[in-house]
């Protein structure tokens, strides 16, 4: 029997791959079905994302409690960020932005980018 790891502290979410973090970032805007997530990733990476890479990573994120999977119809699943998933996205952004604190010019550039989004 496999043991399900859930996010009880930030360490599990901080161990995610960049690909998994990108999935969470995509889902932070709205719930999506798998092929829509795939298209967003392909746009970001500017290359094809194989089903064999996407769906196992989505399943891992579901197992970790960061994403919730529901059935839209008999052939289509929808994926939505959980509160823990949202916290993981925020944690990653806060950490990334904290790296710019020491350089005022860079910090200002990042703030401007965030505000325009």
UniProtKB/TrEMBL annotation:
Please give the Pfam families that the UniProt record associates with this protein. PadR
Q: Which InterPro entries does this UniProt record tie to the protein?
A: Tscrpt_reg_PadR_N, WH-like_DNA-bd_sf, WH_DNA-bd_sf
Enumerate the SUPFAM superfamilies for this protein: Winged helix' DNA-binding domain (SSF46785)
Boundaries of every Transcription regulator PadR N-terminal domain copy: 23-87
What domain of life does the native source organism fall in?
Answer: Archaea
Name of the protein in its database record:
Transcriptional regulator
Species per Swiss-Prot/TrEMBL record: Halococcus hamelinensis 100A6
């Amino acid at each position: 029997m496999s043991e399900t790891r859930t996010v009880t502290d930030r360490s599990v979410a901080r161990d995610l791959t960049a690909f998994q973090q990108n999935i969470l970032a995509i889902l932070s805007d709205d719930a999506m079905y798998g092929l829509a997530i795939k298209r967003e990733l392909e746009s970001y990476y500017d290359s094809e994302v194989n089903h064999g890479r996407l769906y196992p990573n989505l399943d891992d994120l579901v197992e970790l409690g960061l994403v919730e999977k529901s059935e839209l119809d008999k052939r289509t699943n929808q994926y939505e960020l959980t509160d823990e998933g949202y916290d993981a996205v925020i944690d990653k952004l806060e950490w990334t932005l904290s790296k710019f604190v020491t350089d005022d010019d860079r910090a200002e550039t990042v703030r401007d980018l965030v505000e325009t989004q």
